[in-house]
């Protein structure tokens, strides 16, 4: 008992000590519109509840402190839910400091993935209250399918409750999926064929590798970006490469584990279930986002902990790598400016990072610098409609109308199928006096 309490204290203290410096960070990306939108509350209870579930921002200091506290709570819940032993303790440390989890362990807007994870872990610890926890978690899309991670565990029957919650939320699921599809998906995403399976396996392998070896941390990954709306990048996305074969290997091992069941196999099954909705087989979200892998990371890193727990040197190497990588990347979230700067540095081949950087420069009145960045984005991906339009708009502002028209015509030739009406309206305004920028 004393050892368990000591480990709980260690998990709380190391998380608070590591993440407490983030209190100096301000808001970035989605934090900013949420902060501006919700500033009045009926009472202090509504204020704190909305702050907890990330529907409101109070102050950067308070919100980042809350994130740090939740990190410690998740770590404790992992330790208690997965065995209260050396393996669960190591899993808790790995999940806490996994660099690929940065959008949930540092960024305020990643809160819901953390809350859903809490609901799942609480269901393991207090199975009689699982209906309440899982129903609460199913309010957010991240909780719709992840409750099936109970499959393969001693509490497999809780997955039935998870399915019941999914059925209860079915109308909401359909509504939100359809809405996101209208916002994110394009005509190519509706083609369910062998190429979509290749994409799904590649995404599956990419996330697993990123969690185990954090080779690239960024808010805007170039991997699979524009795969559905750009012919050049689509061919690249459909190609069978290292990510495809890594994904195939992991899937083969998971299938092998079904017939040779072990904690490692269950960890991989957990990862597979939780990451499944984000593998781009049926895309209704951006192609890659590190926060999508947070819930899945618990299972994968539990599998890793089982493999390395008997090798202290390997444990030390892994934790040192994780802590160092996360510590050096954490300042990316100190404000909106640095989030984009880190994105460009981490993945200079991501055209969207350059595009977003250009928008920020334009908002600051640095028109020529913005033009340079959109040209850089065009060099990376020469057929992006919004980049071509924006270059044309900047050239019109600079009174170079003939050059601008060339880019408008090029943009017209690269309209994404299925978006003709919207694209033509943008081009009409761009050629006229409105001169809109594509965000």
Question: Could you explain the architecture of this structure?
Answer:
This protein has 439 residues and is mostly helical. It has two domains: 2-337, no CATH class; 351-431, Tetratricopeptide repeat domain (Serine Threonine Protein Phosphatase 5, Tetratricopeptide repeat). It contains 23 helices and no strands. It has helices at 2-19, 31-37, 44-52, 60-81, 86-97, 102-105, 111-125, 130-137, 142-146, 158-168, 170-184, 194-212, 231-238, 242-259, 263-275, 294-308, 312-329, 336-346, 351-363, 367-380, 385-397, 401-412, 420-431. It is globular, with a radius of gyration of 23 Å. The mean pLDDT is 91.
Keyphrases for this structure?
2 domains; 439 residues; single chain; 23 helices; Serine Threonine Protein Phosphatase 5, Tetratricopeptide repeat; mainly alpha
